[in-house]
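User: For a benchmark we're assembling, each entry needs the component sequences followed by a predicted structure for the full assembly. Here are entry 17's components. Please fill in the structure.
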Amino acid sequence: MYTGRMSAPRTARQRARDELTREILAAARRQLAEVGASALSLRAVARELEMASSAIYRYFSSRDELLTALIIESYNELGVAAERGDDPGAEPGERWMGTWRAVRRWALDNRHEFALLYGTPVPGYAAPEDTIGPAGRMALCLARIITDAKAAGLLSLPDAPACPPGAIEEELTRLIPEAESTVEEVARLIQAWNRVIGVLSFELHGHFNNVTADSGAFFDYTARTAGAYVGLPLD
Amino acid sequence: MYTGRMSAPRTARQRARDELTREILAAARRQLAEVGASALSLRAVARELEMASSAIYRYFSSRDELLTALIIESYNELGVAAERGDDPGAEPGERWMGTWRAVRRWALDNRHEFALLYGTPVPGYAAPEDTIGPAGRMALCLARIITDAKAAGLLSLPDAPACPPGAIEEELTRLIPEAESTVEEVARLIQAWNRVIGVLSFELHGHFNNVTADSGAFFDYTARTAGAYVGLPLD
DNA sequence: CATAAATGAGAGCGCCGCTCTTGCGGTCAT
DNA sequence: ATGACCGCAAGAGCGGCGCTCTCATTTATG
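Assistant: Structure for entry 17:
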């Protein structure tokens, strides 16, 4: 139904269709930001666009499909935010911290979107296929920082338990082909990624309410610790 | 409305009320396990108990309140599972790993309950007051392991960035009064706790789908790494 | 025993996701 | 240019939801 990115519009009808698709998505996005995914209603979107609720189904065959489109959009936005936070000219440690701080800022400014990405999967399940690409965008950004640091000879893994063989998909070592990553390096990046996202989730979901006194400082602290764990030089 | 643990039943009416309250909770719990929190419906619970849906409101004034009761129940169950996984006579490392493995088993067997605890907060917000006690039960179990290890002189923190002052609530150092924990120790425990729960969340929510090949092994690996980080002796 | 409180059932309100039918208007081949 | 066709929007409607209100019945209490 929802054909993802729309190709070059031909007829006037297709042009109108594409435009309306975008408008629906935009209205849904506004609703998501306001009331969250669980309260997002197709009928309210239709009301905002002054059209019959049944007409929405010409563009998105179900509420879940609309949510999936919003998930993809959000993953991409988060990826863009991460990329913007990374200054490729800076030191590896600064790049790492800058990226994560940008991710946190995006999450704080878009908490419902963040919850949609990293919270409980709301529907039966979102479309797995269409989401894996955008989902990896932020991780790829982090992987580049480490790869660059390694190429510059600045990567040194501190002592820690070794990753048991077979725990992670070894194909991930070829995610950035020229990097020639080791299993250990990849395992640490996955852990670091999981760790910092986990801190953000806890902060946003209120699990740190009586735990952290300065959640921003604690986030920085965690990102720094995770960065040191993957071998980046951080003072 | 829902008066939490019910006091000693006096009249027959109160006895019946307490029993029905428990039955509603049990039916709701069954539904939660089957269809998850977002699809849990008061009306379906009433149907299963063969009573009018409006009658439920004599016991729980809203769906959110029912969910909150389920949250408390689940926190306690998780706490019990953690305590059962901890053999106080074993070595600190074994205690740590045993506790976490028990937590994971509980989460895998009760994924909807786990999602309710550590996923997106579904309603406007669950009751904060009544949940903080049960929520800390598992964390307390972990803190005891570390305290015991410290008392036995087996705790040694590996090098890592220091926790910046003011990041965490310093009162947490007095959570176990006789432990005399340092800020650094507490900060590491919080991070470790967050880290392992984060791995579980990612696993259960499908974020590790094309990432880990053996999620059990990866979980163990993470728990081990986190245990080493808090200073426990782990081989 | 009478009064007050607690309880349960039913009807009903306004939402929701989703489907089906109907009619209109643009598209396109003949 | 005309007629068949298809995309589209609208409306009605289905069953389900959370929640409220009323009313009868049952139970506890003075």
